[in-house]
Specification:
14 strands; 386 residues; 3-stranded antiparallel sheet; 11 helices; 7-stranded antiparallel sheet
């Protein structure tokens, strides 16, 4: 992803906790000097409204309008008043009068309260929380990863866990006011797993909801995913694709799914390196290859441009049948676009499609357990969201 303008590493909800970063996380962030979550949130830019005017081209007079209000960062506005040459522009956005400002403390202040009360194995979540905050666009766009040491999945043969949490963020530019979704980071390889729950989004328009209740429901969802993620991974490890029998390479598998070439090459390289055989690769390893490419080599920015590829990667793990169907359809369209002439070429294409269909048929007996587990998880999500 594009590098943020700044990063802040945090550990512990506030100064009353004595939280240290997990060893695997500290090793990957060098000599990070973490602050508390409360301190990090209160250091984020905020927005206030101020009056907007337009210049009448015939009189050169400035006319105030109530139809729009500028969003500015107050401390930067004060600095600009004292120093006309101040480096940082206080202006974020000029929305219409239907815009509702949601500042970071409005959202994450209630989360702090929940983290002090909710526990894992008898320990308040606020004492085991850690993560990072990333700022873009002058601090008007913020993304953060919040994880909980001990809320995790441990795979056999690995010393580092997959740690669960949420990724959340907001901006002041009229897009999403606030979003949050389930998230995990694999300590073994630093791959991030996004969209593990449905993304919850609050817009800049309308009434602001009760964030405390919102966070309670969302954290309950994350705990449910932690309970089931190991089972999904174990099942995906039992489903192998034999690329020696398929009409495409591992790299082409990812491009058929919709990955751009540069990501497909990175994903394939990681999957082949971590598989017992570069020709027989299970769906968990293929998923891990995709998250490796997205975590370390995606050239776009956080948000919608990343989300489309995250959905593809997650389907490899959570919806293997849908993944194979997508590959089959893309390969068939590729054959049609190539306009293969002659019976020999057509026969080769039919044989290639038949080999993909055999993989799909072999999956059928395992698909039901994925569907049943996903349906049960969705039902529990609904219960958790009240």
């Amino acid at each position: 992803m594009k590098d943020p303008e700044s990063r802040t590493i945090f550990a512990g909800v506030d100064g009353r906790t004595d939280t240290e970063l997990p060893e695997w996380y500290r090793e990957r962030h060098g000599n990070a000097d973490p602050v508390t979550f409360a301190e990090a949130v209160r250091d984020l830019p905020q927005a206030v409204e101020t009056t907007v005017a337009y210049q009448n081209p015939y009189t050169d007079e400035w006319v105030e309008t109530e139809r729009f209000n500028a969003l500015v960062e107050p401390s930067r506005a004060r600095e600009q008043a004292r120093d006309e040459d101040a480096e940082t522009d206080p202006l974020f956005h000029v929305p219409t009068d239907s815009y509702s400002i949601i500042n970071p403390v409005d959202v994450y202040g209630p989360l702090e309260e929940v983290l002090r009360e909710e526990t894992i194995d008898g320990t308040p979540l606020g004492e085991v929380m850690f993560g990072e905050i990333r700022r873009y666009r002058g601090g008007g766009e913020v993304h953060m990863d919040i994880m909980f040491d001990g809320l995790e999945v441990r795979l056999p043969g690995r010393s580092d866990p997959i740690t669960m949490g949420v990724t959340s963020g907001y901006d002041f530019f009229g897009e999403h006011a606030v979003y949050v979704e389930g998230f995990a980071q694999d300590g073994y390889c630093s791959n991030t797993m996004r969209s593990l729950t449905d993304k919850e989004v609050i817009k800049h328009v309308g009434d602001v909801r009760n964030f405390r209740t919102w966070w309670e429901e969302l954290l309950a969802q994350v705990e449910l995913v932690a309970d089931d993620l190991f089972e999904f991974i174990r099942d995906a490890q039992d489903i192998e694709l034999d690329f020696s029998e398929l009409p495409f390479t591992v790299t082409e598998f990812y491009t058929l799914l919709g990955f751009p070439d540069y990501l497909a090459e990175r994903a394939a390289g990681d999957a082949e390196a971590n598989a017992a055989s570069p020709f027989e690769i299970d769906m968990w390893t293929l998923h891990s290859g995709a998250t490796y490419a997205l975590t370390h080599f995606f050239q776009g920015k956080e948000g919608a441009s990343l989300d489309q590829y995250v959905r593809i990667a997650n389907d490899i793990l959570f919806n293997p049948e849908g993944t194979i169907e997508r590959v089959e359809q893309a390969y068939e369209q590729q054959l049609e676009a190539d306009g293969a002439d002659g019976s020999q070429a057509s026969l080769a294409g039919e044989r290639a499609l038949a080999s993909i269909e055999r993989v799909s048929d072999d999956l059928q007996e395992k698909v039901e357990q994925f569907e049943e587990r996903e349906d049960a998880l969705r039902e529990r999500f609904q219960e958790a969201m009240g």
